Amino acid sequence: MATNNKSVRTYELEFKQLLEGAFRTRAYFADFFGGGIEALDGVENNENAFYVKTSDIPVVVGTYDTGENVAFGTGTANSTRFGERTEIVYSNTPVPYTWDWAIHEGIDRHTVNNNLDFAIADRLDLQAQAKIRQFNANHGKFISDSAGHTEELATLDGDGVLALFNKLSNYFVNNEVIGTKVAKVKPELYNVIIDMPQTTVEKHSSANIDENTIVKFKGFEIQEVPDAQFAEGETAYAYVKDIGKAFTGINTARTIESEDFDGVALQGAGKAGEFVLEANKAAIVKVTSGGGGGVEG
Question: By residue range, what is the domain housing residue 70?
Fold first, then answer.
């Protein structure tokens, strides 16, 4: 809500709501981050967004020892049938902001040719949409950098694609990855999947050649994503939904009366970042279009 100060009006809350709404509908990798972005307005910490409790203590599977002199007999008060006790301690792990964004526009009452308040609302909405394009670019890079495994698409044809998805399926099953599997793919790969003999009505496939759509293939939800969202040499990202977190902190979103023209400067600034637990990286696979197949990330 804007303040009553006529020279400066703040819009952090409005911009937060616009960002959250635009993210749900325009973010290509929203499902990786639980379907939404954590947007905080009025942030003060300029380094870390939040802290998570983490523990790298392995789970020890022991046995219950029923020996005659364990906890009884000569072992009374100096032994236990439960085995060695492991103390569990969690650490506070900081999650930092890793990139930032800004807004700097001017709206002159003499030239805007529209209601000033309407123009401000319109520009905030458009800026929110533009920020989602920044989020998309950073999120694709983050997923690529976080991948715990890499597979290669040897050939961009039906045989190559089928072999790839068989490898992806085997990888997720053998690593006991639980959850809804998604494959975000480039348009050229998407179209090969649509055109494959395996995606036919006779095989009860969900592919629709008329609409150029497919819901699932080999257990993966298939979604087409523009080329620009992938790192160079990469053609697909496969992962399980809801394993990461995307966030942004809004330091400023305001209008301020300008001394240089009869109107207001529309300004904003914030920081953003992404997070995934180290253990969850095994549930992320990037697909290259040549070289490095079947290797750990």
Answer: 56-89
